[in-house]
């Protein structure tokens, strides 16, 4: 693999270049080693990365790809962003870790202040730092229980909130997540999400959004609270503004305002999980801003430190834990992660990344809708900003998921130089870095179209 080392000195070419059909010989060796030493998780494509810049990734065989996955919506400012890299490099020589839950340093307080500034709500806020999305949700659960002194919660069918035993109790996007793991945290009841494309009520939510919202609200009030869950036992609702792992599902615009009325009428809390939809992805800093609601607790991770592991919850300051010792961890607010978080927010503001996500999101959507017009198997194009998905169907009327076709498109597009991730039953998400250009989007969409053609 000397050639890979020689290539380090040259910048990555900003174009797709497939020299050897992937996975190439170097990739195959590493995949073999990975399979020998690593436990099974959720691997989807046999791409073995060597280095990356912006929205381009080079693999160990010298192939270059456009990245429409962003490390699962983590490198929102693109790979190895120069300003974020410089900030972390500088910090590496000063202080790495000091246990921010137990001692003090400025970098953590600065990152917390900046998160409070960019999150919705003009009130005092407090932050608790974690290391991942699932831990952020665990912290949110504890805050809600402590504050309300209530034990039950409501989650949504199709939601994803992580895989530890508390957040897993809310996760309801695929049965495999639960297989053999019951019982997890008790006290979570699920209600339908207003999924306009596929929902248990058989309502076309694009044509009849109000009817869909009313059915869900009715379900919660009349059936869930009316027959078996006393609302005064419920601490709060945990919900994604746009369901991520459940298939990039955007609810009708008025849904969260209606939900907030229920929440407030019962003295509950609205906890919004913006682990995947936050940090500029949808063309606003947070997806909840599209829906005109301010959550009581916002749960974050993924993009907040551009790939240095970090999560956080941002809460109204009156929701702070009443005493020290109720919750803590070792790595939360780690110095390098805090510096990366601050540098990420600064770079996003300086480079107007959120505005670019809104603008390029329009362009991406237009290109995807053109594909939908051309290929009958694409049943839906949905999303906001640069959080888009295309859904493959066997039949336009029944909207039956075409899972095999979707998987094939993902693989064939990869062989044509595009990195994609599937989501839900039959969708592919399209989540490039927020600072992508229209030309780079076009490059990726062309590879996607080749993938579709090769799969039909
Ligand atoms: C909305 C949402 N919440 C929580 C999580 C869990 O995050 P993590 O994998 O960092 O634990 C994810 C991960 O995909 C997510 O999309």
What does this structure look like?
The protein has 456 residues and is α/β, with parallel strands linked by helices. It has 2 domains: 2-78 and 353-455, Aspartate Aminotransferase, domain 1, CATH 3.90.1150; 86-350, 3-Layer(aba) Sandwich (Aspartate Aminotransferase, domain 2). Helices cover 36% and strands 16% of the residues. The chain contains 12 helices and 15 strands. The strands form 3 sheets. Strands 4-10-9-8-7-5-6 form a 7-stranded mixed beta sheet, sandwiched between helices. Strand 14 (421-423) and strand 15 form a beta hairpin. Helix 11 (403-415) crosses helix 12. The longest helix is centred in the C-terminal third of the chain and has 22 residues, at 353-374. It is globular and about 60 Å long. The two termini are 36 Å apart. The mean pLDDT is 97. The protein binds pyridoxal-5'-phosphate (PLP).
The SS-based structural class is alpha/beta
| Number of DSSP helical runs | 12
Strand order of the largest sheet: 4-10-9-8-7-5-6
Oligomer: single chain
Chart the SSEs and their pairings.
Blueprint: H1 2-7, H2 25-37, E1 49-53, E2 56-59, E3 64-67, H3 70-73, H4 82-92, H5 106-118, E4 125-130, H6 133-148, E5 152-156, E6 188-191, H7 209-228, E7 234-239, H8 255-265, E8 269-273, E9 297-300, E10 311-316, H9 335-350, H10 353-374, E11 378-384, E12 387-392, H11 403-415, E13 418-419, E14 421-423, E15 427-430, H12 438-455
Parallel strand pairs: 3-13, 5-6, 5-7, 7-8, 8-9
Antiparallel strand pairs: 1-2, 2-3, 4-10, 9-10, 11-12, 12-15, 14-15
Helix pairs in contact: 4-9, 5-9, 10-12, 11-12
């Amino acid at each position: 693999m000397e050639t890979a080392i020689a290539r380090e000195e040259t910048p990555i070419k900003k174009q797709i270049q497939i020299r050897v059909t992937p996975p190439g010989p170097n990739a195959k060796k590493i995949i073999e080693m990975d399979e020998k030493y690593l436990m099974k998780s959720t691997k989807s494509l046999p791409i073995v990365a060597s280095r990356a810049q912006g929205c381009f990734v080079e693999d160990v065989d010298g192939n270059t790809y456009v990245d429409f996955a962003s490390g699962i919506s983590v490198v929102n400012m693109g790979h190895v962003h120069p300003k974020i890299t410089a900030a972390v490099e500088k910090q590496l020589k000063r202080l790495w870790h000091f246990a921010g839950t137990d001692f003090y340093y400025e970098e953590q307080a600065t990152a917390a202040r900046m998160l409070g500034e960019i999150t919705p709500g003009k009130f005092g806020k407090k932050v608790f730092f974690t290391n991942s999305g699932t831990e952020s949700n665990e912290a949110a659960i504890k805050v809600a229980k402590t504050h309300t002194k209530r034990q039950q919660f409501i989650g949504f069918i199709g939601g994803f909130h992580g895989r530890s035993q508390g957040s897993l109790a809310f996760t309801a996007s695929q049965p495999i997540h639960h297989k053999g793991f019951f019982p997890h945290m008790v006290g979570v009841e699920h209600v339908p999400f207003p999924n306009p494309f596929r929902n248990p009520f058989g309502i076309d939510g694009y044509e009849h959004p109000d009817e869909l919202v009313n059915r869900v609200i009715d379900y919660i009030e009349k059936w869930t609270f009316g027959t078996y869950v006393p609302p005064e036992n419920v601490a709060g609702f945990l919900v994604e503004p746009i369901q991520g792992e459940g298939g990039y599902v955007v609810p009708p615009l008025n849904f969260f305002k209606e939900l907030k009325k229920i929440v407030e009428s019962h003295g509950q809390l609205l906890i919004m999980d913006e682990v995947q939809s936050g940090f500029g992805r949808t063309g606003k800093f947070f997806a909840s801003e599209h829906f005109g609601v301010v959550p009581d607790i916002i749960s974050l991770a993924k993009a907040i430190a551009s790939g240095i592991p970090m999560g956080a919850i941002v809460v109204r300051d009156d929701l702070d834990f009443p005493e020290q010792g109720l919750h803590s961890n070792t790595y939360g607010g780690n110095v390098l992660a805090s510096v990366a978080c601050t540098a990420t927010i600064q770079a996003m503001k300086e480079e107007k990344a959120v505005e670019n996500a809104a603008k390029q999101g329009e362009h991406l959507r237009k290109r995807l809708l053109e594909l939908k017009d051309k290929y009958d198997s694409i049943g839906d194009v949905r999303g906001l900003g640069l959080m888009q998905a295309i859904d493959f169907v066997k039949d336009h009327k029944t909207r039956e998921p075409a899972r095999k076709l979707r998987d094939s498109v993902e693989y064939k597009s990869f062989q044509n130089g595009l990195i994609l991730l599937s989501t839900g039953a039959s969708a592919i998400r399209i989540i490039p870095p927020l600072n992508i250009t229209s030309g780079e989007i076009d490059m990726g969409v062309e590879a996607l179209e080749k993938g579709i053609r090769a799969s039909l």
